[in-house]
What does this fold into?
Amino acid sequence: MLTETEQRLVDAALAVVARLPEDGSYLNTVASAVMDVHGEIHTGVNVGHFTGGPCAELVALGTAAAGRAGPIALIVAVGDEGRGVIGPCGRCRQVLLDQQPDCHVIVSDGDEPFSVPARDLLPHSYQHPDADPPRLLWFSPQHWTSVVDGGKTATTRFNDPAAPGPTTLLFEFEDRFESLPGVVDSVERVRFAGVTDAQAALEGCTADELRTALRTHYYPGVTDDDMVDFVRFRAVGPQA
It folds into this structure.
């Protein structure tokens, strides 16, 4: 089920695809919309051509770049003739993985649309060795105050990779994003069962309490032998 923010992005893409000409030329058949970490929306349409014209997602990403958008948080594509939400092609998945690896992509399995991290759409992928994309560290809105106040400076992640360096701390409220510039200071990979009380104390609990909370609220399928990332981070500026 989509959040209000995600539905707003889908509606923006649907509004664009509804305006495409129906002249049978098949030049423009898909619209895409992207939302950056500040909630700004940018749109684009595909340009069909036998030489391989650009997909709508790539046009939308280019429009966002031209509009000096921040890092991309969400992207969706919709088809004409009532096709609704459609998934990105393989090329677009590779581009997203290299350029916006932490963004979420709205897709559909034939029923209700839902969002998934871009990296989940291209498992066992090749990653451009020279890519240096903007990074996002997603948080539930309940952590907003503690991160802003500097009380929360650690987070444990499973199948949600982070990398040391500049990042945007992104909080996904039901109807909006809030973001802060931040830095990931370190990422330590440990067995889930090996998370220590000292590490968990940085999240305000014991190791057993942390494991229980992660299994209950975030990662129900994680096992004791799974590897998780213990991430140290900090906010470095005012609200974005």
